[in-house]
Every structure is written in C-alpha cells, then in structure tokens.
Amino acid sequence: MSEAPVVLEVRGLTKRFPGVLANDHIDLKLHQGEVLGLLGENGAGKSTLMNMIYGLYSPDEGEILVNGKPVNIKNPNDAIALGIGMVHQHFQLVPVLTVTENIMLGTESVRGPFLDRHKARQRILQISQQYGLDVDPDALVQDLPVGVQQRVEIIKALYRHANILILDEPSAVLTPQETQGLFQVMRTLIDQGVSIIFISHKLKEVLHICDNIAVLRLGKVVGSADPKTATQESLASMMVGREVLLRVEKSPATPGEPVLAVQNLTVQDDRNLIAVNNLTFDVHAGEILGIAGVQGNGQTELVEAITSLRPVVGGKIIVAGKDVTNFTPRKVTETGVSHVPEDRQKHGMVSSFSIRDNMRLQTYYKKPFAKGIVANDKAINQASEQWVAEYDVRTPSIFVSMGSLSGGNQQKAVVAREFTRASKLLIVAQPTRGVDVGSIEFIHKQIVKMRDAGTGVLLVSTELDEILSLSDRIAVMYAGEIIAIIPAADADRERIGLLMAGVREGAVQHE
Amino acid sequence: MKITRTFIFSIVFLLAGGLLLIAALQRTNEIVPYRMTTLPQHVVPSVAFEAPGVTTSILRFPNEDDSLSFNLEIPTVSYSLIVALLFVGVGTYGLVPLQNERAQRTKTNGLILAGILIIPTVLILAAAGQSTNMISMLGASFRLGTPIIIGAMAGIWCERSGVVNIAIEGMMLTGAAFGFVAYTFVTASIPGQGGLWIGIAVAVASGGLMALLHAWLSVTFKTDQIISGTVINIMALGLTAFMRREVILNADASFETLSEFSIPLLSKIPVLGEVLFTGKPIFFSMFLLVILTHVMLYYTRWGLRTRAVGENPHAADTLGINVQRNRYINVIIGGLIAGLAGAWFSLETAGGFRDGMTSGTGFIALAAMIFGKWTPFGAAAGGLLFGFSQALDTRFQLLNVPIPVQFVQMTPYLVTMIVLAGLVGRATAPKAVGQPYEKE
Ligand SMILES: Nc1ncnc2c1ncn2[C@@H]1O[C@H](COP(=O)(O)OP(=O)(O)O)[C@@H](O)[C@H]1O
Ligand SMILES: [Mg+2]
C-alpha cells in the first residue's frame, strides 16, 4: 500500500472559528487507490477539514498538496478542477429539480443558448452503468429515498471527473442494506482508480472498508491505525481518549405490569395509506421492547400514534391502564410518556431556543418551572445546569442556542430532558443516530438505568446491533405489521435479519 | 368529521348553490327546454334558446365585418339553475366521507371547476336582461392585465433566485415617473413617437436602478428583504411625488401616448384578432416577456442556476456557482421589467403622471405570481384573472347592476382564495426565498 503515490496531502492545516480551534495543524496523506477512514467524535473537526480541501472554507494556516504539488484552493471550482469531489454530510441537492438537472448544475452542457439535457442524461447513464450506481435520471430528487439521493451525489462528483472522493459520514443516514450497496460502489470506484476519504464514526464499517485509518480528536490527528490489526475497542478509545465499553452491561429484566398496551392499532401515513396495520403488543414495566425493522415499515407512524402526533384510525392505545387513543400530545405526556423522537431537530427541540428553554418545553407551565403565570428562572437555570452536567452535554453555557450544538450533544440534551421527567413509559426512536461512540455508550447506559428503575422502554431502531444489545424482547416490524416477537435470548443476527427482510418464520423452517 | 379545506369549501359551495337554486326556482316559468336555434339573419349564427319572453343575458361579439358578428344569448334563469345544481352537487360530494385518493382528487377537481365557474356566472348574472360587448370586455381584460402580468414576471425573475421582492410597486412607480420626465424633456427636440421610446428606455433603466438598491441592501448587506422592499416602496412614493411637483408640473401640458397598431393578418381573425393582435407596444411586449421568462427559467443554463440558487443556495455554492452574483443579476433584471410595467401607466395609457398612479398594481402582480406558483404561464393566467376583474368593474357600472360594485371587485380575489387557499395544494415558493445567503 505504502508504495502507491500520494494523491492528496495536507500539511499543518489549521482553521479557527470564533472561540473554537476546529483544526489544529493537521497532517494527512491519501494514497492512490485507497480508502482512508477518518474517525472522530462529533465536533472533532472532520467536516471542517474536508470543507477546506473542497474550497468551502479557507485555511488559516497550512498547505494542501495534490499529486505532490502545492495548490491554492479558493473555491469549489478550484477543487473540482483538481479532481476533488465531495459528498457532504448534509446532501447538497435541489429537491425540486430532476436528477439530471442536479448533476449537470454548474457544468451544464448546452446547445446554443439552451440546455442539452439529452447529452447530460447520456453521460449520467454511462457513469451509472460503469460504477453500478443505479438511478433514474428523470426522477425528481425529492421523490428519491436517501440511499438513492446519495448515489446522485456520488454521480455528481464523478460527472466532474473526480478521482479523489470525499464521503462525509455517508452511512449515517443509510439503512444496513443501503450501506452494503454503498460499500459495493466504493469497491468499484477503487478498482477504477479513484481514491476515497471515508468519514464515519461507525467503527465496524471503518474496519470493514478502509485500507488506512486516521483518528481525529478535538481538531488534532491523534493517531492512525491499520484496520488489519486494530479492533473496535482500540479505535474507540483512541477516538474518545479513554476506555469505552462497546457492550452494554445489563442484568436480566424483571418485568412487571404492562405500561403500554397497543390493541389492533391502525394508522395511516402522510399519503393516507395504511402504515401500521392492526398491530397488537405490550410493553411491561422494567423491560426493554426493541422494535427492529428496515426504515419505513411503519415504525415512525407507530411512535407518532402512541405519542398522539398522528391520528389513530383504528384500535386502542392504553398507557398505564388509561386509554390515551387520540389524546393531545400534552395529555399523553402528562400520562407519563417520555419520547426521544427519531428526528430530533424536527420534533425534539427548537433549535433557535437556548438549551435552557429547550429543557422545559413540556413542563414550562408546571411547578417548579412556573410560578403562577410567570417563569421561575432560578428553578429552570438550576435544573438545566444540573442536567447538562449529569448528561455530559458539552456546551459553553446553558444559554447558547440548541442549534449551535453538534448532533451528539443535541441528542444528549434531548435525552436529558426526557429521561429526567418522571415517566412510566419511555419511547426512544433511533436514540443514537448520528451520535459518536462515547455518547452512544452513555445513552445506552441511561436507557438500561431507566429500565432498572421500573420504566417500560419501547426502543425503535434500525441498527440491529443496538436492538440486539439492549432489548429484552425483540419485535420485528415489516410492512406495517409485527411479524414476530422473540425473547432476546433466542435472537441472533441472521434470524432477525431475515425477519426484517420480510421472511416469515414459517417460511424459514421449510429450508 | 375532521374540518379539512375540502370540507369548508364544500359547505361554501353548498350554500352558494342553494341560494342560487332558490332564486332560480322562484322563476320556474322562465326555465326553458334546452333547444338551440339558428337565427337566419347572420352567417355566423347567434346561438340562442327559442323561448320568447324569457330573461336572457346577451353576450355580443361584434366585428367590423357584420357577417362575422355574433351574439351569445343565454337564458339567465336556466343557466343559474344548472350552475346552482352543479354547486350543490360538488358541495354534497365534497361532504361524502370517502377517504381514498381517487375520491379526493375528484372532490378537488370538482371544487376547482366550481371556483372557476364563479367568474362567467358573475358576468352572466350581471348582464341579465341586457347585453354586453364581450370583445371590448376581453380586450379590456388583457389591457388592464398588462402591467399586472409584466409586474408578475419581474417578481418571478427576482424571487426565483431567492430574493423576495415586495418593491415591484415602487419600481413601477419610479419607472412611470422617470420615464415620463425623460419624455417631457426630449419631447420638443424629437419628433413623432421617438420621445416616448426614449421615455420607455429611461423607465426601464430607473426600475433597474431601484432594483440595484434592493440587491445591494438585501444581498450584500443581508438586510431583511421585506424591510428593504418597504424602504424602496416608500422612497419611490416620495421621490416621484417630488419629481411631479418640481419637474412635470412646470413642463408643457399636452402629451401623447404610444400609438396603437394591428398585426397584419393575425388581427383579422374573428374575436382573437381584436383582443390579442391589436394594441400598443408594451401590451405586445407582455406576451414576449412571458414566453421569454418561461424559456429562460426552464431551458437555459441561467434559468437552471437561478432555480437552484432560489431553492438551495448552499448546494449551488458547492458546485461553484456564484450565489451573490446570480441574485444581483436576477434582481436587476426583475427591476428592469418592473420599470417597463411602470411605463405602461404613464407612456402607454395615461399620457401623464399622477402621484401613486400605479395604485397597488405591483402588489396585485405579486398576488398573480403567487397564484401562478411562481411559474410564468401560471402568473400570466393570474394576471389575466385580475385584469378581467378590473374590466368587470367598469362593465358593472355601465350595466347598472344593483349590487354594490365593491362586492364585484371582490370576485377575483375570492376565486384566488379558493384556488390558492389550498385546493391546488400549497403555494410553492422557492425554498430559500427571503433568506440571505451566508457562506460559512
Ligand atoms: N461554520 C462554523 N462556524 C463556527 N463553528 C463551526 C463551524 N463549523 C464547525 N464549527 C465548529 O468546529 C468544530 C468542528 O466541527 P466539524 O468539523 O463539523 O466536526 P465533525 O465533522 O468532526 O463532527 C465544532 O466545534 C463546531 O462547532
Ligand atoms: Mg461532520
């Protein structure tokens, strides 16, 4: 590997934001035809580094070399001209335009004064064939699932003849199946001479796909590793700077009375199609029921129905013996339901509010946060300070806006609010999506702690590992139905994986 | 039952249909069997219902060549009955608790049809027992729609790149005043219509200058775009009033307007010829502008980039597109177009300048743009609807209808509300409209 020429090198690259040293003299080398994994916690400075290479930010110090020659990248055009392509952490697509329009944007082929969509379309089809990136060039981007949108982003880079490809947390938004597809594409790209920087904080993936690994912490490169010899544990501790426990330690559950009973529940999705179909299950006090399933099989609608964010079309939802079907969200909350929503930015927080104000979103009108009709600032501040400390939310103060925190810290803040509110039922959906290992460990520990304190936990996750390591019982959801509920002791990856793909147990036994 | 938009509009149409039905049924003797006859005295026949003694609304389509003239004679009560039944039918179906997608689509389409029917219905009811000249009515709609449609195009250029433009009104007014001032200055030295054309050029340029100010405030300094637009509107009002007092009042008093001409051949087509192919230059430029805007937006590189910048400027930036530059240019082009709309008032129509003579047309243009969901043809349809309503106004005063004219003036906005307020779906503004672009 080391004989391959270096295609991209950064030396002493430094970037300061007001009050933050985001990148501190970073040195990094990318060799021809390799996948370089870049690991680091949320806020370690990975995206900042890549944005400098791509010309979106200008470095305060240091230099960038492409093919051994120092270059001055002032804007994305310069980067594109040097053969650098980037798939951003948040996709940079225009939803109302077609795939072809999105891809050709900025380097449009024209015939006279008019766009030559046909020519662009031909090239897209050719690229999509060459690299196995299946897309419909005429589809509107807004109609595409994220996995396909990502393919569009990759084609966008290849369309501009990128031979250095930066993938900034490409797997964060993908289902396990889509991730496998992405890896296949990456291998094809490597075979065709492209070099890739792969950013992730999923250790398993990095070990699986990368040829070389560099670890960033607090804006500095703290080390590199060889995926052949490194382990998840060694990488995790390098990333976080201390020992991290990847396994969840928990004692057997001691389930009590049911706190949630769902009976023949039917719910529709946004297009008025049946999303949850005649579902029945229980969650008991002191147990964790994990709902496994590929994204989009009705989990979102199920959770929204239980929390009254979505109307129930048929059936009943009973929380702690009380029928809460089609209640208002506040009434459900007051019944004793805590909810860490799947999309924290949309349903879990108000990003322009301070952390402090986010901490009292559901309880602002009650004691101790309200004194009559006025807010009790002292109590609010005190509680917020305490929770931020207890849940390790890294922030300069409780008065900064929630939106300015990194994703992992936002999640910890939401978790703090929901877990500290006394509740009988805790619903956690995708609790560790986009969250780094250190924080995952912490959140998992808290979930188990809640269970041990007698709370019933409904865990919804598309991460199989998360489901397997936390749940006491596992329900697999497919096409709006629960097709099996099995005790965690009897569950293994293959069995759950098959169920998630819709293969029912009866069918399995025939083989 | 959930209160949905369909539910509310269904109730409205049910009530309106019911009232109309009661009114029609009180004159059952006037309900005539549906039978069309050809009246022999015309080559192109008048279509009428053979039923003597029945109240009819006569829509006349006169032509210079008498053999091409014809009338549409509509029995008012029968027509009302049909419309009333349709309204009641649509309203009732809208209340049937069917949830599936096809039923929902049928409901929506029915309500939209009923909404559009309001316009001819108002006209026909107004002309009950009388006759009205439809050619001049349609001609007036297009003529009065001209500044609205041109203004809407100005809005589209600007807003599609992500900059809100509530200053169209101010840019128009500036164009109207400065264009006229320029004309009064050169009128003595340039014979014929030449002075008017110079006036138009100045009107266009002054609209562009106002837009430059808007771009400077809102793109470079990232001022709130609504505030920047308001500032321009207020400034234009003061500036033009000042111009009138200080310059125009002192000038010679007799002024012409651009002269009308007909497009050869095309203007001979019955009905359409007189409505579409006879008019003044700015009127004709409207058609050109709508087509140009459409082609620019959907078939050129600039249009693609503009749409991208208006929807997701950051994405455009990552592809090396200069967001600020794109916005500047689009805002300025919008201003130039708004200036032309201003020239319509002072140089094509009035032959003079009055304070605030655009009287809100810039805002109506914005409504037309929103009506058309930021698409050129949609906005043109909206502008036409508003033009029609203004024509209806004058018509009503001629016909002596016993309804207060203010109510009739409401009709187009009522229709807009029904069409916009969500039957066609949400008005889809460019996503990034109103947000200044911050790079880091
Ligand atoms: N545009 C910006 N303005 C101010 N601070 C920023 C900006 N972008 C990133 N930061 C800060 O820089 C640090 C590194 O962020 P980032 O590179 O996004 O981390 P990562 O991608 O590794 O999660 C964080 O502390 C973040 O808050
Ligand atoms: Mg990042």
SSE order and pairing:
The complex is a heterodimer of chains A (511) and B (440).
Chain A: E1 6-17, E2 20-31, E3 35-40, H1 46-53, E4 61-66, E5 69-71, H2 76-81, E6 84-87, H3 99-104, E7 110-111, E8 114-115, H4 117-130, H5 146-159, E9 164-167, H6 176-191, E10 195-200, H7 203-209, E11 212-217, E12 220-225, H8 232-240, E13 258-268, E14 274-284, E15 288-292, H9 299-306, E16 312-319, E17 322-323, H10 329-336, E18 337-340, H11 344-348, H12 355-358, E19 370-371, E20 374-375, H13 377-390, H14 407-420, E21 425-429, H15 437-452, E22 456-460, H16 464-470, E23 473-478, E24 481-487, H17 493-500, H18 505-509
Parallel strand pairs in A: 3-10, 3-11, 6-9, 9-10, 15-22, 15-23, 18-21, 21-22
Antiparallel strand pairs in A: 1-2, 1-4, 4-5, 7-8, 11-12, 13-14, 13-16, 16-17, 19-20, 23-24
Chain B: H1 5-25, E1 36-38, E2 47-49, E3 56-61, E4 70-75, H2 76-95, H3 101-126, E5 131-133, H4 134-160, H5 168-186, H6 194-220, H7 225-248, E6 261-262, H8 272-276, E7 278-279, H9 281-299, H10 301-311, H11 313-318, H12 323-350, H13 361-371, H14 376-399, H15 405-423
Parallel strand pairs in B: 3-5
Antiparallel strand pairs in B: 1-2, 3-4, 6-7
The complex binds adenosine-5'-diphosphate and magnesium ion.
